[in-house]
Specification:
The protein is of the alpha/beta class. The protein folds into 2 domains: 198 residues, P-loop containing nucleotide triphosphate hydrolases (Rossmann fold), CATH 3.40.50; 60 residues. The strands form 3 sheets. The chain has a 6-stranded mixed beta sheet, with helices on both faces. Strands 11-12-10-13 form a 4-stranded antiparallel beta sheet, with helices on one face. The chain has a 3-stranded antiparallel beta sheet with strand order 2-1-4. Strand 11 and strand 12 form a beta hairpin. Helix 6 runs parallel beside helix 7. The radius of gyration is 25 Å and the shape is globular.
């Protein structure tokens, strides 16, 4: 479905010395910086997979998505999506993909959403019976039947995002690219979007490529993760394997009746105390969990405690701060 080999995208930015002298000098002596936004990137994604692209801002995620959809042209390397070169922008290719960007809209703001959907119907040459069936089905699942005839500018961000998804999926694409689909949405709207994507995938089995800074999106939807840092692929595998990169540490939280007078026993485990000193969160190695928890329960006034696996957010944060950890997987 999607194959890249040694894919590179270079950007050139020009430097200028400050002031009028710098501006004049740059007219005949211009210097520039060349940067690889995507660097020698190899990737294969099969039919029906839901793959999460993760990485810090500026890592190259959106650049990859734009190359996959033909918006920008690679500098070098090979890229094939559904057997097409995306940057040829053939109509047959465009009919088989969808791109949803959380910060960009394809619905016209000054007309009702249904009018935009009819324009999309004409562009993709969707039969009327199929169009009516798909609109009714998706509107019901997303609970937006009453919003189809409202001007888009009058809708909330969450309502608009639901209708954006409808518009993108009307032609039933084989590959769906979701770039930050829940950005800026409240928790209820985020949940609705995730549930809709899940149900749509279960029914139609498209290939889905997702980028998001909300780890809940990734954990809810993806079974495979690709980590990108400085334009390079640093990890590609199962989400459970990704969570194990930092080892088998557990996150343990203790709540106390009174603040412990001696906190030294906790400090070796990167203790994070609340302001009152009544709660602490620790990162404990699996092999030390039982012994240390028993010690705390015996020597301190513990009200309750909780244990959970290391959250994926913490794994991401640690890898951004210490990328060398990826060299030891």
């Amino acid at each position: 479905m999607i194959t890249t080999k040694k894919l590179i995208k270079k950007y050139v930015s020009y430097k200028k010395q400050p002031g009028i002298k710098g501006a004049i000098k740059s007219l005949w002596d211009r210097s520039f910086i060349e940067k690889n936004a995507v660097d020698a990137f190899d990737l294969e994604i099969g039919k029906g997979e839901i793959v999460g692209l993760l990485g810090p801002n500026g890592a190259g995620k959106t650049t990859l998505m734009k190359m996959f959809t033909g918006i920008i042209v690679p500098s070098s390397g090979d890229l094939e999506v559904l057997g097409f070169n995306p940057f040829d922008r053939k109509k047959e290719f465009r009919k088989k993909i969808a791109l949803v960007m959380g910060q960009k809209s394809q619905l016209w703001w000054d007309i009702p959403a249904m009018d935009s959907l009819h324009l999309i119907k004409a562009y993709y040459e969707i039969p009327t019976a199929d169009f009516n069936e798909r609109v009714a089905e998706m509107a019901k699942i997303l609970n937006v039947e009453e919003l189809l005839h409202v001007h888009v500018r009058k809708l909330s961000l969450g309502e608009r995002m639901k209708l954006e998804l409808m518009a993108s999926l009307l032609h039933q694409p084989e590959v769906i690219f979701l770039d930050e689909p829940t950005i800026g949405l409240d928790l209820v709207a985020q949940d609705a979007i995730r549930n809709f994507i899940k149900s749509y995938h279960e029914k139609y089995n498209p290939t889905v490529i997702l980028t998001s800074h909300y780890m809940q999106d990734v954990q809810s939807l993806c079974s495979r993760l690709v980590l990108i840092m400085n334009g390079e692929k640093k990890f590609d595998g199962d989400i459970l394997d990704f969570e194990k990169i930092l080892g088998t540490d557990k996150v343990v939280s203790f709540n106390f009746e009174t603040s412990p007078s001696d906190k030294s026993a906790f400090e070796k485990y990167n203790a994070k105390w609340d302001l009152n000193g009544l709660s602490v969160e620790l990162a404990l190695p699996q092999q030390e969990l039982r012994a240390f928890s028993g010690y705390v329960l015996e020597h301190f006034d513990v009200i309750d405690f909780q244990t959970e696996k290391l959250p994926i957010e913490r794994v991401m944060k640690q890898l951004m701060l210490r990328p060398e950890l990826l060299n030891h997987e």
